[in-house]
Amino acid sequence: MSDVIPSSLRPSCSSRVHTMPDNQIVAVADLARHDASVVRLWIGEGDLPTPEYIKQAAMDALKDDDTRYSYSQGLPELRQALADYHRRHWQVEVSSDRFCVTIGGMNAVTMAMQAILDEGSEVIMPTPAWPNARQMIEIVGGVNVPVAFDFHPDGNIELDLDKLFARVTERTRAVFINSPSNPTGWRMPLEDMRRLRDFCREKGLWIVADEVYNHFVYDGGGPAPSFLQICKPDDKLLVTNTFSKNWCMTGWRAGWITFPGGMDQLFARLCQYNTTGVASFIQRACIVALEEGDEFIAQQVARCQASRDVLVHGLTALDNVTVFSPEGTFYLFFKVHGLDESSLEMAKRILREAKVGVAPGSAFGPEGEDYLRICFAIDPELAKEALDRLTPFLTELAEASQDTTAYLEG
């Protein structure tokens, strides 16, 4: 962790911000952002452009001078489009006044934590986990309580709910669930979702559900179930989401949060005081994405499945690699056996020697050490190219490890 505040100013700055760790994914990406020879699989975004009809909607709105302040909670038309979208894909009725439009999914998580956490409030989070969510808990004064996934040698990942329940204390305020999960690709079974819901109801806890990757489920199994399908409008449930992944709109910075009935004024205020709302011309593009983008989502998912299959099949064939085949998201989490260096240093080495950019598992918490993450929201041909570069590198790594072991034993 590097000093981000000059020592002379540190005493008068927030200690919580000063102690934030560096983002290790960014640390790797910054080494070769402009190197065109690198296959870039580090950042969580697809390689397709935003569809033309979405861009056209924004340009039309700009031409119409739709550039003024708007409703803090979001355009009524967009919130109704969100209600229609949830009805279409999850067969659930959510009133339009239960949505608030946000500056991307990160802002949705920020406002969720601001809405429910006091100083010292604990949030239980399965880990390895998205680092941004972990840090936001601490930025607003909460305490992150990690519960490690169980990684099995056969490549399966499980979350032991009894282990999670055992971490609840009198300070626990919420359970954060990202399903399908970044970085592991784990998907929470519906029966476990119901069991967690019942437990949280009994204990008076919030569920904060990050459902960003619900459409990215493979082998015909999607979309993943939503907590909105099994919860009542007055349950303590906050669901965060974004336009970034489904419609290749990462740079547009638009998302949404779904909250219990009656909390609309609270979130309108939070939005006003955090950002004053999302640009109205971007919201017009979001409406079009929701109303016309279902076919694009399906095409993306099919494309990701093809790339996933290439990488899973190829990496599974290597003796020194355990692949956790993802049930969802567009991430592949895998373990390289016999490493004698950290996952961060290994990611840097892969970048230097194989010209493939991957994310170190330690970026997602100490439980991710010894693992690496690949984003496979890419063209299947590019996935083949990445595999062609990784295979000889990992094979040579295994041979070097065996030679070292033989030398030490001999």
UniProtKB/TrEMBL annotation:
<dbReference type="InterPro" id="IPR004839">
    <property type="entry name" value="Aminotransferase_I/II_large"/>
</dbReference>
<keyword id="KW-0663">Pyridoxal phosphate</keyword>
<feature type="domain" description="Aminotransferase class I/classII large">
    <location>
        <begin position="38"/>
        <end position="390"/>
    </location>
</feature>
<dbReference type="GO" id="GO:0008483">
    <property type="term" value="F:transaminase activity"/>
</dbReference>
<dbReference type="InterPro" id="IPR015422">
    <property type="entry name" value="PyrdxlP-dep_Trfase_small"/>
</dbReference>
<dbReference type="InterPro" id="IPR050596">
    <property type="entry name" value="AspAT/PAT-like"/>
</dbReference>
<protein>
    <submittedName>
        <fullName>Pyridoxal phosphate-dependent aminotransferase</fullName>
        <ecNumber>2.6.1.-</ecNumber>
    </submittedName>
</protein>
<dbReference type="InterPro" id="IPR015421">
    <property type="entry name" value="PyrdxlP-dep_Trfase_major"/>
</dbReference>
<dbReference type="Pfam" id="PF00155">
    <property type="entry name" value="Aminotran_1_2"/>
</dbReference>
<comment type="similarity">
    <text>Belongs to the class-I pyridoxal-phosphate-dependent aminotransferase family.</text>
</comment>
<dbReference type="InterPro" id="IPR015424">
    <property type="entry name" value="PyrdxlP-dep_Trfase"/>
</dbReference>
<keyword id="KW-0032">Aminotransferase</keyword>
<keyword id="KW-0808">Transferase</keyword>
